Amino acid sequence: MPLERPAAKIKQGNLVLYTTSLRVADLRRPNFYAIETLDVDEGTGYQRVLNEARAKRLADYLLDGHKALEAFLPTSIFLATDMLLPFDEEKNLLTIDESKTGAFNVVDGQHRLRGLVLAAEKDPALNEFQVPVNIAVGLSKVSQMAHFLIVNTTQKAVDKAIEQQIVARLTEMIDFEKTPVLPKWIQRQVDKGEDARALAIVGHLNDESISAWCGKIRMANMDDESGEATINQKSFVTSLKKLVLTPSNPISGPNWDTERQKKVLSNYWRAISDLLVEPGDETSVIFKTNGLHLFHSLSPAIFTRLANDRTFTVDAIKVLLKHAFENLPTEYLAVSSPAFWKRGSQASGLNQAAIRKYATAVATAMHASPDFDGVALCDPVNLPLSV
Questions:
Q1: Which parts of the chain have pLDDT scores under 50?
Q2: d(CA 271, CA 315)
Q3: How far apart (Å, rounded) are the C-alpha atoms in residues 320 and 365?
Q4: Mean pLDDT of the chain
Q5: Which of 217, 222, 223 is CA-nearest to residue 202?
Q6: What angle is formed at CA 81 by the lines to CA 77 and CA 85, rounded to 5 degrees?
């Protein structure tokens, strides 16, 4: 049976909102709302994974407070639909029939909704508890995703990994679907496309079976049930954007598409792993933040030399790194040993200043011998910019 609720119609540019209140019983109607959780593999949804503990804490508060008539939840829930809702302008009466419109998407407030439902399941009296609700109508799925990002980055923090995923998806959609006006700082991220490119690289490194990083990166909204992840997507993407996908790095130029960048970085990390990680050592600091930052900091120098030699094969990278390691000053020589990178050893305690010093030392040592010819020592087949 359709709901009829008094509501105020609000227009904010092209956005049409209806502000009203709903009982918990209304929210619990079958198929009344849906939560589209971000699925990295499928490229769908945008919501964070529900934190059941957080929802339960809210439910406990509501159960305790309701008995004393002191429970309150003044912050509005933001629902959205791409359909239009009947609204009587004279009576200010909104009609909601989810059997015709389908479930509302929850843009903001999923933990409040879950807490309310949990509380009402334990105490049916809470079914009559009312909550303020804003309902956006005629809002496409792309716009809903963008509004989620706006709400959760301009008012309160959202997990950086989820932000990266959404910005990347907006970048991919920008030429094909109409998107709402975004805050300038988000629009710059979307236009630059760095998140989309970095995420594509990270996904490749995490999924490719021969990659040194295979299965070691915890992507947004992903559980690490196996315990194999050593770093999260947020850190890896941030490192790529800051140290690799920059004008100073030769593989970020206009002639470099994402596919070639994936191959080069895969080869780069395979070479590093072959030289500095002992077989079976899954806890090496090479695969932690310190290892990531040191070798991404070093990458402009390495890739400049490789670009000059026009080869990016694993063997070419290994020869170049070996040459640098052999010419390191004594105080930095330990960095060339797998023992240095074992968990709990020296690499674990490096700060950012020390990482920069080691990266600089290796880059300098790489040019120690002016007669060194990386290509001559590598695979004799030297195809143009081979990877």
A1: 373-385
A2: 7
A3: 10
A4: 84
A5: 217
A6: 100
Q: Give the tens place of pLDDT for each residue, 210-266.
A: 999 999 988 876 766 666 778 988 899 999 999 999 998 999 877 898 999 999 999
- CA triple 67-70-74, angle to 5 deg: 130
Cβ atoms of residues 298 and 363 within 8 Å = yes
First CA to last CA distance, the chain? 63
Long-range (24+ apart) CB contacts under 8 A made by 370-374 are 372/323, 373/309, 374/305, 374/306, 374/309, 374/311, 374/316, 374/319, 374/320, 374/323
Phi, psi of 383 (to 5 degrees): -75, 155
* Residue 3, pLDDT score: 94
Q: Which of 153, 3, 132, 125 is nearest to 66 (CA)?
A: 125
Q: How far apart are CA 372 and CA 386, in angstroms?
A: 20
Residue 196: its pLDDT value, please? 81
With H, G, I as helix, E, B as strand and everything else as coil, classify residue 94: strand
C-alpha 292/C-alpha 238 separation (Å) is 11
Q: Determine the Cα angle at 197 with ends 148 and 298, to 5°.
A: 125
Q: What is the pLDDT of residue 66?
A: 82
> 0.70 exceeded by the pTM?
no
Token pair in block for residue 334: 């330990």
Six-digit token string for 328: 């390191």
Residue 283 per-residue DSSP state: T
Residues 6 or more apart whose CB falls under 8 angstroms from that of 104 comprise: 32, 33, 34, 79, 80, 81, 98, 135
Q: Please name the residue that has the structure tokens 């600089």.
A: 360
What does the block give as tokens for 309?
């030699």
E strands in the chain: 3-6, 8-12, 15-23, 33-34, 77-80, 87-88, 93-96, 104-108, 130-137, 217-218, 231-232
Per-residue confidence (pLDDT) for residue 375, from 0 to 100: 43
* Per-residue confidence (pLDDT) for residue 148, from 0 to 100: 67
Q: Which residue has the tokens 């140290």?
A: 243
